[in-house]
Amino acid sequence: MEILLAIMIGVLYAAGIYMILRRSLVKLILGIIILGNGANLLIFLLGRVVKGSPPIIPADSDVFQSVYADPVPQALILTAIVISFGLQSFAIILIKRAFKVVKTDDLDEMNAIDKDS
Fold first, then answer.
1. What's the total number of domains in the chain?
2. Strand-pair partners of 24
3. Three-class DSSP category at 41
4. In 3D, which of 46, 43, 33 has the Cα closest to residue 83?
């Protein structure tokens, strides 16, 4: 299972970097989204994928007796999802506005129009 997740993380990172290096703003945002999903999967994988019980210590003991699921990576991923959703919504509105003004989503053409002004 971990090997499959590691391969999937590599594919997501490769696809995200490839999309970021394209000249279109839409592909740039899609690349950032894909790269963020790869990072979330990496955090999840670093927290170890185990089938375990919730991390609750029974009243009669001081330490964990069995394997438990670590809640910290899950909390980090939930926070990262919320932050990336805000970033994505802001970037989509920004791209829409830039396309409305410049009439293109090509970064080279936007750069040329910026130098002409």
1. 1
2. 106
3. helix
4. 33
CATH (domain of 99): 1.10.287.3510
In a domain, 60, yes or no: no
Tokens (6 digits) for 63: 């330490």
What is the domain range of residue 34? 2-51+69-115
Rounded-to-integer distance, Cα 69 and Cα 77, Å: 14
What burial class does residue 25 get, using C-beta atoms within 10 Å of its C-beta: 0-12 exposed, 13-18 middle, 19+ buried? buried
What amino acid is encoded at 98 in this protein? Answer: A
pLDDT tens-digit readout, 1-42: 789 999 999 999 999 999 999 888 889 999 999 999 999 999
Identify the three-state secondary structure at position 109: helix
